[in-house]
Amino acid sequence: MTYPRAENVGIVALDVYFPRRYVDQAELEQHDGVSAGKYTIGLGQSKMAFCDDREDISSVCMTAVQGFMEKYAVSYADIGRLEVGTETVIDKSKSTKSVLMKLFEESGNFNVEGIDTTNACYGGTSALFNACQWVGSPAWDGRLALVVAADIAVYARGPARPSGGMGAVCILVGPDAPLALEFPLRGTFMEHIYDFYKPDMASEFPTVDGPLSVTSYVRAVDHSYAAYLDRLEKVAGVENPSLSDLDYLVFHSPYTKQVVKGFARMAYNDFTRNPDAPVFGDVQQFRDMSREESYGNKVLEKAFITLTKAAFAAKTAPSLLAARNIGNMYTASVFFGLASLLAEVPHAQLDGKRIALFSYGSGCAASTYSFRVRGDTSKIAAALDLAARLDNRIKVSPADFENVMLLREKTHNAQEYEPTGSTAELLPGTFYLQKVDSMWRRAYGRIPQN
Length: 450
Description:
Layout: E1 10-17, E2 21-24, H1 25-32, E3 47-49, H2 57-72, E4 79-85, H3 96-100, E5 116-117, H4 123-135, E6 144-153, E7 165-174, E8 179-190, E9 196-197, E10 207-208, H5 210-234, E11 248-251, H6 256-273, H7 291-294, H8 298-307, H9 309-315, H10 321-326, H11 333-344, H12 347-350, E12 354-361, E13 365-373, H13 378-384, H14 386-391, E14 394-396, H15 398-411, E15 431-436, E16 442-446
Parallel strand pairs: 2-14, 4-5, 4-6, 11-12
Antiparallel strand pairs: 1-7, 1-8, 2-3, 6-7, 8-13, 9-10, 12-13, 15-16
Keywords: Acyltransferase, Transferase
Protein name: 3-hydroxy-3-methylglutaryl coenzyme A synthase
Organism: Coemansia nantahalensis
């Protein structure tokens, strides 16, 4: 049997999961003894979600997938591919995708392609590309694909800890999607760099070179955005393409202040391509500055942030709802940005518009790509109910948050272990870790639905 070639392949539906508990960043500033505003203004963060030893990457992904399937009434029998993007590894061999196959047992569907993809925060984007390309290829068998992007972002105590968070997203990929991926319009940049990595298998904490990571992010913006604009010009026939040709932009957000800088950096790239454009009249002093000199130049950075303030407010600020209130979610971050945009901007304003995404993963891998809104997004927004869900959480003191982080550190990779975290505050439908046996095999339970 042959299937007609799929058209307008992209995101049919999506849902997100994040923990019920969070720590307030202003209170964390006081607890850590740092200056007021260091986390809330300097990083642009309000709240940070976290989980204790009751949740791991497998339970988080199961919660996201099962919750999505129930909310959208999708049958597991209709899924032909499942791709997982994550950098939260609890096994060096067994994939998180294989654990998720437990959810398929009742349907009897074990003919499901796909596997895990790992490269820091970029794995979810690679998983999405794989799923979309499968649906759009001759290998497609007419079924739908699921993409799961999830991570638990935790750091050792110190200046990086406030940039943690936790979240998972489940995306349904198929033809005739309301968010159709613009297949030819993609720019990618990859290079070898040690800015953020996890060489210590005995710890879930990364090794981070903060200044290098910031520069790497900006370099990735430069190269992937430039490659995207080249495609926009050559493939779509857009003359002198720039930010003005992108209706909305969503960025990977390690913290929201970095997104502000990323947007401004795209404007700087527009300036280098077309410095005589009237919009750049106030930044001509940077005309002769080399690109290498521009990295880390705070005067240039501030000038372009000021220049793009109004455009940023219109095109990107609505996408930061989740990032500001949850924190970094690594592979899921850019998709939480997309979810926030869909939740915050009515479909009438999105209809027919182009939404560009910048996805970055340290090490490094990055892509700028885009979707065209070709269908009603209001159903997705209603299913997300994002603002209400963010409001329906439990605030935890910084001291209790520190105790949870210490518990996770002490029990990482534990054997013959029964978690001690309470299940009383887990949301209905949440999967949780029950025990780890002498062979590191993990057993899970699920909080009953209301």
